[in-house]
Amino acid sequence: MRESGLFGILFDAVAMGIAIETLEGQPLFANPALCSMLGFSEDELRGKHCVEFSPPEDANKDRALFEQLRRGSIDNYHLEKRFFRKDGTLIWGRLSVALLKNGASPSPLVVATVEDITDRRASEEKLQRSEANLQLLAGRLIQAQEEEQQRIARELHDDIAQRLSLLVMGLQELRDSLAAGQNGQSVLASELHDKSEEVAMDIQNLSHNLHSSKLHYLGLHFALRQLCERIAAHHHIQISFCYADLPGNLPADLELCIYRVAQEAVSNAVKHSHATKMFVELTCSDETMLLKVTDSGVGFDPSASHRGIGLTTMRERLRMFGGELFMESIPRKGTTIIAKVKLEKAKVMST
Q1: Do 6-116 and 213-351 show the same overall fold?
Q2: To 5 degrees, how large is the angle CA 280–CA 318–CA 324?
Q3: What is the CATH number of domain 6-116?
């Protein structure tokens, strides 16, 4: 019979579900909260074994821990699992099980408490679905951005750049003919020629920034070296690039991800660091690829900085391949951006 007194009052009044079981997992007592939670009467609960209250995959996890409890390997455990209600529906509960040692009993009993966490689990699953949808949307936006950049790059290269080249050649001819005639307009023609060359070069650089054909045909390390050389020449900054131990079978979309992250990191450093020197390093060790971009600039306090769209984009790109982005910066001592990708995981996520 159930004990009377304070224990009995608490057993019946507490809002959390409680059951007293034998070491074989047979319920002896169940409080009203547990009966209400599962929809069974106390007599119905006594007629069942504890494993009957959950789907097989959940019951198996519980059974393995319960056996350890019986053997004395552990004296309590906690588990989140599903429970069947009498009407066949499932609820989530946080199960806590412990030995109830009673000197008056020849063998110890087991006390199990169940907290209904169905609403919490539903909220967590909804949040996980929302995060997964946001990650999928971010991936699609990045992919759409890449496709649009490739389209613009093709148009710049195949149309605008070609027409500008013809303009440059025409102005070259005009300058030469005017110079031969000692005409004062040759100076103007020369200026127009120089400006046209500058525009053509700027468009060519823009085309490379939007889509690197070298990345597609010659590989990541070659494209990164060219990126560093081009930015260094354009902004009059010293950029050193080195690489080591790169595998030759990297997925194309992973190479593009690393290239874009490097491009963003180097561009940010040029814009904000006021550095005169920069180091870009790409290495691979123990199936982990590391991209490190270090500048000797002014640095900043990371805890006081605002997260810009550039950092967010880099993180989203890396997250699509299970990668991470780390940032280290000290005021007046420079900044280091580190991108880390586990290749095995990245190859799976790129398929």
Answers
A1: no
A2: 80
A3: 3.30.450.20
